[in-house]
Amino acid sequence: MKNEMDAIVKTALIADAVPNMPWEPKPADCKEVVWRHSKNPIIDLHPMPKARSVFNSCVIPWKDHFLGVFRVDSLSMDPMLHLGTSPDGLDWSIEEEPITFISPDPALGKVTNAYDPRLCKIDDKYYITWCNSYYGATIGQAWTTDFKTFHQMENAFLPFNRNGVLFPKKINGKFAMLSRPMGLGMAVNYGDIFFSESPDLTYWGKHRIVFTRGPGKWERVKIGPGPIPIETTEGWLLLYHGVTDTCDSFVYSMGAALLDLNEPSKVLYRCQFPLMTPEKIYETAGYVGNVVFPTGVIADGDTGRLAVYYGAADTYTAVVYAHIDEIIAYVKEHAWK
Amino acid sequence: MKNEMDAIVKTALIADAVPNMPWEPKPADCKEVVWRHSKNPIIDLHPMPKARSVFNSCVIPWKDHFLGVFRVDSLSMDPMLHLGTSPDGLDWSIEEEPITFISPDPALGKVTNAYDPRLCKIDDKYYITWCNSYYGATIGQAWTTDFKTFHQMENAFLPFNRNGVLFPKKINGKFAMLSRPMGLGMAVNYGDIFFSESPDLTYWGKHRIVFTRGPGKWERVKIGPGPIPIETTEGWLLLYHGVTDTCDSFVYSMGAALLDLNEPSKVLYRCQFPLMTPEKIYETAGYVGNVVFPTGVIADGDTGRLAVYYGAADTYTAVVYAHIDEIIAYVKEHAWK
Amino acid sequence: MKNEMDAIVKTALIADAVPNMPWEPKPADCKEVVWRHSKNPIIDLHPMPKARSVFNSCVIPWKDHFLGVFRVDSLSMDPMLHLGTSPDGLDWSIEEEPITFISPDPALGKVTNAYDPRLCKIDDKYYITWCNSYYGATIGQAWTTDFKTFHQMENAFLPFNRNGVLFPKKINGKFAMLSRPMGLGMAVNYGDIFFSESPDLTYWGKHRIVFTRGPGKWERVKIGPGPIPIETTEGWLLLYHGVTDTCDSFVYSMGAALLDLNEPSKVLYRCQFPLMTPEKIYETAGYVGNVVFPTGVIADGDTGRLAVYYGAADTYTAVVYAHIDEIIAYVKEHAWK
Amino acid sequence: MKNEMDAIVKTALIADAVPNMPWEPKPADCKEVVWRHSKNPIIDLHPMPKARSVFNSCVIPWKDHFLGVFRVDSLSMDPMLHLGTSPDGLDWSIEEEPITFISPDPALGKVTNAYDPRLCKIDDKYYITWCNSYYGATIGQAWTTDFKTFHQMENAFLPFNRNGVLFPKKINGKFAMLSRPMGLGMAVNYGDIFFSESPDLTYWGKHRIVFTRGPGKWERVKIGPGPIPIETTEGWLLLYHGVTDTCDSFVYSMGAALLDLNEPSKVLYRCQFPLMTPEKIYETAGYVGNVVFPTGVIADGDTGRLAVYYGAADTYTAVVYAHIDEIIAYVKEHAWK
Amino acid sequence: MKNEMDAIVKTALIADAVPNMPWEPKPADCKEVVWRHSKNPIIDLHPMPKARSVFNSCVIPWKDHFLGVFRVDSLSMDPMLHLGTSPDGLDWSIEEEPITFISPDPALGKVTNAYDPRLCKIDDKYYITWCNSYYGATIGQAWTTDFKTFHQMENAFLPFNRNGVLFPKKINGKFAMLSRPMGLGMAVNYGDIFFSESPDLTYWGKHRIVFTRGPGKWERVKIGPGPIPIETTEGWLLLYHGVTDTCDSFVYSMGAALLDLNEPSKVLYRCQFPLMTPEKIYETAGYVGNVVFPTGVIADGDTGRLAVYYGAADTYTAVVYAHIDEIIAYVKEHAWK
Amino acid sequence: MKNEMDAIVKTALIADAVPNMPWEPKPADCKEVVWRHSKNPIIDLHPMPKARSVFNSCVIPWKDHFLGVFRVDSLSMDPMLHLGTSPDGLDWSIEEEPITFISPDPALGKVTNAYDPRLCKIDDKYYITWCNSYYGATIGQAWTTDFKTFHQMENAFLPFNRNGVLFPKKINGKFAMLSRPMGLGMAVNYGDIFFSESPDLTYWGKHRIVFTRGPGKWERVKIGPGPIPIETTEGWLLLYHGVTDTCDSFVYSMGAALLDLNEPSKVLYRCQFPLMTPEKIYETAGYVGNVVFPTGVIADGDTGRLAVYYGAADTYTAVVYAHIDEIIAYVKEHAWK
């Protein structure tokens, strides 16, 4: 790994060091910018007695190990949020019971049918956002400092919305979020990425389009933000999912774009090509075939190494690796003019 | 009219007097709580050279006459907002050109495809809200004090949303709005009424359900708030539209509910029956058959008289009359338990 | 009327005399086999305080006047069955409250969302069948002898079924019924007519197709039996509705066929053309435009005169007249070979 | 009429004189470029015993009177082509039996389900094109010289196609046709206008787009050519239908464009606004509500007067009048830039 | 196997002993109540020259070996019923030609497009029920005593119905059947389980709901009875399929419930969780991915062992094993309250 | 291979010898008429840096090696046509850049979104036809003599059309093409095979149906021609794809028919059964699961050997082998009567 790291003497990544992050060097014959963990999927079916599957989840380094908030589909296939811990970011131990939230108002109802969490540290708090059910899908919000007590907050938006992703720091003094407003139902064939800001995480406004579906075929049906945006000297690196339709169904791929650091609704570069598409059998067959759905990332500020966590086929948790500088170079080289 | 008015010595209505409001007494044989203006529709097709039709609009008393903001479908059937004036609230003169808004930010784009306006006075400003196009339908907002200069504000919500209706005063120190989040497309078969609040009309939050579709068949498909809620000693009187489906299409009726004065997401009474359904030929046949869609109201604080303006068949502007105390009594008598 | 009646010295109709039946002679310029009552619709919107509309109903002569079981859509548009009386079969007085049924088993649930009744005398009992809700639309059954006490029976079939129409006498010792099995939902685009038999009205079997949709365009989408089949020397005269689709919606017309007296699933003649299509404004515009839906008939055994009751636009009750011998001749002349 | 005609001393119209064409001067209060015949519809329901309705048809002057090829929906609602004659172009006598065609090849099958004919004189022959059924809708073709013997030709295109409209003379030595390729089914929500050419009416090619749906809302769903293009010094005047969708259904209006005389796939001017939309009850209610569908035109080369025949609500035949020079001026003034 | 069997000294199962039934003990690491046969699928693609695939079938012990009635999809993918024999219940020899039925009435038509058979012994006869085509899908019925001559009976119900499953003995003197009425088409998104009874297998009535879709997500779209209900001291054990939808398609799982012995429409316990979901590649990929569809069971009255036969991916026949007492305990422990 | 070849002393195939064609003898245990290449797929995902996948392509022998025109789905999943070369027809080298066409008219637009090419030699020219985008999918045409310069021609038809397949020689002096007209969109559920002819490849006409979907279930949804028809003494052997629907999606199989040599719209034999269905994991799972889509064939006139190239799962290129005489015998034996 030494030589490889030497080649990247300076990284554009602005992040803390995570020297113990999960990692495998790029295989010699790999010509792409991301490469799969050799033992994917890292979480198989039935990882624990009450769970059918675990996917579309989010992880962070925590002290000398790793924590995650996971989408756990129970045996009845109903999704909930569970806490997990791992010594190495690959071997996960997930709690049997879902996270319990302290509610700010009983009128918000109980947290049920909760899925696709994102986990974001801003200043000294950890924020979880997820797809929450409140008379339709919307963005649930909660915070914790110790991963023992979780404080639910107001839902960020009116339904229908999915994939609410916070930026890891305030921008121009405001909290900032990307999301994908979208209609009722599971197979809705549209959805674009918007930017919103808030003084307090309770009231949100100044909604701006970031970008819309298309123009490439791989993302012509719907798109949505993936992991927490990654700060770099070149802008916010946004990994996102893009969806196309076939005569059969949908195909979910992972794309990338660079957004302006101070005005993230301004797109600097948007890559024409996905970084990754469903190709392995654990990605093409399962509960929902042909899905790679990135939701989490660990980034090492010292080296620019990335470990991206993604849901595979709405069934498994898997990991790909990349160097952020290679991604940035690829995005810039292949950006739409 | 004298005797009739005498019968209602005290009204629950909390509003200014509008002695010159449009009015016809209830016909002797009318057994319902609302009755149609005898010369409906008050605005026919092609009321002006550049307009195909005018409907779903909102009016207010202004000095000794009346003003309105109208949905004008141009000859090409594209909707825009136009200002109108009337000496009596019935005979309207509508400006040829759409209202021009001063934009707070070019990124919001031009106001095009704007429809179904509501007009609301809060303190010393007049606010217009409407269905605005910004990468999907959402709630546009603007204010004016003189109906000459119109200041556009931020859109209230992310798409997709329709029928944003402000309350005519702050509640618990916050601006308050009802709206109907809904998906892309014209024939979406769902939609419920939500309540949101804002410190400043820019950032909105604390979204709460008011009520959902159903349970009566007439409103089982979708519902949406109608005119600005009417303040009464019994609560906010909400007139709204409810939609059912048939083996042919949709039928839009007008319903009513009373909401808590201090916590409007709390429903005090919701009437089982619509106050009015499409029955006249100008309501059952037209651009969209079977539509009565209330969007405006003039209320006389002295007498409790109401003139409700509604779009008929997405083609005409029409008026029905009612006494607010009769409506309140009817809503309470026929409320769902 | 004398001459006209003289012309038909002998009628094929097998029925009791109903000399006081509603009747208007055929207009001189009428070239069709059915002609509308001159004061249609006979039941307009809001015929009584709690009803929005009355249609798709069934009547019988009773002593010196007439009785009917009516589909009444309440103010909330929810349908129920109501009893009605009339001195002349045209001017109807309908009870405010729905018919109450004595249930054979609480597990059948309450009769709600009940519509499109048929009324049939077999031996000394009067049977009502209707579209009943029991975990889907199915055929409700009840009997009475005095129209004061109504005894509900078992539902005839599993869901989903509509338009269950009994024959007015046993055939080969068994009760006999026509019906239209069909899927869930209001706009289902298929539906054929089947024949079933029963020893006891509780258990039904020996289901046979009578005929399917098409081949004429007017009935290519779905068909369903109309009034109780009319016994004639030429076979059972079945009046039925046939439905076509347009680029807009559905059009419901009235057709006719003759079925074998002893084996009614055997079709003797099926008329290529509908006897009647929606043409008057009360048929083309309303709650559901373009609907004529025959459900009741009064037949005079002495003269062969028929008064057919039909729902118009799912909004009104209307009547057409005909001579049964003219219909039979027309059906035979224009039958599919 | 004198003065009015004087005002148009020179017309752009290139056509033979038809002094006896149907005509009514523009009403004094009419501010639009087309005005309806005062006794519309000119063909009502059941104009003849075997017909339910007649609409979407095409007429020509013939000797001292008028001939037409009519879409006749039979009593069973199946459409066929019938010949009609009229002394004045308004009072039509239509043959009971459909036109019989001499077939060039039995493999083409019988002409059934034939509709929306156009009638075009090129040199010394009269050509009929129509929507023909051959394993899907396509463009049938036939010719006659005497309107007694009709020679069917090859279908112009593969299915699925509708509204094949010939140009009234060869262009650059080739026959020329406009058409609207479109998918299977009645409610297909797309369709654009294409131009094709042929050396011999048997083999067609060099297909070019003329224009697509939109951008105005009134024509955003589908468009199709209407009557035979009208030659003028300003280009080919194309009257066409444009269709929008509402939350209920479709609305068919009449639009206009000017095409290059020598290269008709080149659009010179396309009017932003429809010339006419469904507004009268015979246009908004019927077999298919909200339809004006122009298919025929009589043009008087001496005066520039036009009588445009259109189907109303897929139920009636109706007529509007216009001056071609007014239309041309209107189209140019309101053309999309 | 000894120890394992010892652990279950007394079984709740009420059934004959089948000591030679197919069986594999539960793997040591298996934490679930059912476990797959180690050599699944037991019937692969093209098991015989004229068959593409064999699945959704039903087996019984017969003398010293096993018989089955199989759904065989022919090379053209059209399904038919075939007889099969096996020495051990795992290695099947299936007849090349479909079963021939002696018809009670030619009007019932030939048995074609027959699928998903169930095989049930009641008293001394063996009954086959299946999804039969008679102007729509309905429940075909036949009996045999020797598996050489098969007597077709009347169809049990009107269309549309699937999955007719007889109880293996009369209840309260009547034959009893579970079924799933459902609409036309392959992807219908609803379907509940009903109970019906019959004095003679010809006439059916007293239809009662057993349970409806949901509330768990895994069965929220449709449900249907699986193998013949299994009699136990705790009630009838019903294995059934439950279907959910994803943004891609459907997922079919196997659930379980206990029904009252004397009144089977009364549900004693319904398990919140499926017993089994599609997880192996032969279940997730094939003609229809993500299907486990149980239709047959062999139960050993001595030990409580079960071998459940299920169709995998509408392509293969596979087997899972279980102990009935473990299932009963699991169902009771995880029942909806 | 010797013996096997000896068995077929005389072949019905009319074609040049291709002794070096790719080939593997039929496995001993294979009971079907086609057998898969042992190392399928021959082109895997990412065969070259700019390509995601290569499939649905067409090859020919060229000098001592092989050429092909390939559908290459780029990294963005947009399809284009690329040239490829191979020494043995199995190991392919595909050019990085798409084929550039010399356009006959700029109005035809650029060739983008081009897919499913066919390659056909007629006289001394090589013709490529493909699914081209010109305001809808239609049949693009081009010719080359040296595979260096490619001359685009007029599109053969109006949209919407797919799978245009030329015959390899003129028939009755005319060029001849099979195609599948079809509607807009990817999942259209209909499509039949038509025959058209042309004097010059520019103007096409005399369109005739060849055959329609069904009657077997495997091809009941849509069908389309596959490789260039193969000339034999028994008629044109047409390999084609047939599509069925399941409750999940579509399944694409390969079928066969023999067409009259002089009048190819006349079907001599149509096989009831597909020759091949999706069964291997590379056929059942991928970008579009359950697809075998034949588009190319190499035929050896000396021996009757065939190598059929097909797209697998819209992801891979694969090959099956067959003897033409076995196919002909099979088709005739199993033909629909």
UniProtKB/TrEMBL annotation, chains A, B, C, D, E, F:
CDD domains: GH130 (cd08993). Coiled coil: none annotated. Pfam families: Glyco_hydro_130. SUPFAM superfamilies: Arabinanase/levansucrase/invertase. It comes from the Bacteria. One of its GO terms (molecular function) is glycosyltransferase activity. The keyword Cytoplasm does not apply. Keywords: Glycosyltransferase, Transferase. The keyword Glycosyltransferase applies. Belongs to the glycosyl hydrolase 130 family. This is Glycosidase. It comes from Flavobacterium nackdongense.
